[in-house]
């Protein structure tokens, strides 16, 4: 496996965040989880027992009680929300309880299956509890003081670990911003300030802050003025939208529609996956009003002007709105986490505010219930299948489960001339012995050849083969050749290797 990415997660514990955490638990050995931190947002805050929202944050964005009392919810913030002392508070210790109970029960089987797959060990429940912190949860956008969560983020930013530090914002940015404010307060009046700021720019990457805002105004109000060059990144393709059972791309939509999610993700896979939520599954969400009880009424009605309520089938995929941030960092053999010029499972990362060059990306980013008309993400179906195979690990011994093949000794990156033939090869290790299918293709999203669409039908359906650089390729053109290896088990798993060929 490649070097694991170092990650800190901040979450406001929205219902879809809970699903994202359960899903992430199956892949915790793919990342180095430094910390997971409770934070606040415009959708959830706990209060401090003393103040109101308006006393703490004059720039709130919450729609307050209008979000669940009004038939049509105005797009602007609720002017009365300043009087709120708490808002849709999340269950305290939800994450720690998950580690102590359901994850602890799944842990032995997860560990045994990882060993068969040749993957790193999973963190123990005790290690995860020690890495779980309470951040700035009192109010939306609350950056008044340091918290254990903001201190953990600050320590990780300022330590000597040279690896990239990924900060994944699943709620408001306020706990991350508080950490940045504390760093600035310590150094801004010293000769070290510019060096410290450059260290932050070099080390830190943020995923999850859409359109430079996120789920509160703390970044715009406090963070960006201090660290204007901090890299906020995003990916072109989504995962886990509330509407995926109606609008996922055609080659994958059946894996988001009932009965597939219940049959493949939940049934027979133990207590951890039993916590995973689907539309109409009967689960109750603590402290949530009726409008957001999707387990009861299976209806998505956010009260948005001009948007009709959407009714789902019982057992449809519900949501994982924040899995989009960590899925790109998982090691499936795609190289995008370490180098943004390559793919991730959700496409190449790009700076927030830029326009991605990926064909079909705007539809993927902006769709709300609009059916997809083509398969813009070539990795989505394989990823959902892998999720199902991984879910089975939670409650079954290795001999009952499917495991991914390992790809080793693949063709190295190289330079070539127009018209030159490149020998493609790799070694595939199949731990289950069930057999596999191998295919080489050209990745259109990370190749720079101007006629790359003409290569869409090119493939080699075996581990070894050749690729001929097009005769009209220009100096500097790049072709990313992706080897996909899909096992033939009942629950197939797919892994990749990517080779870059640059025209000299």
UniProtKB/TrEMBL annotation:
Q: Which Gene3D superfamilies match?
A: Immunoglobulins, Ribonucleoside hydrolase-like
Transmembrane portions of the chain:
none
Q: Where is the Cellulose-binding Sde182 nucleoside hydrolase-like domain positioned along the sequence?
A: 6-342
Q: Which organism is it from?
A: Collinsella stercoris DSM 13279
GO terms for MF: hydrolase activity, hydrolyzing N-glycosyl compounds
Q: Which domain of life does the protein's organism represent?
A: Bacteria
Which regions form coiled coils?
none
**In its UniProt record, which GO terms are filed under biological process?**
carbohydrate metabolic process
The protein in question is named Cellulose-binding Sde182 nucleoside hydrolase-like domain-containing protein
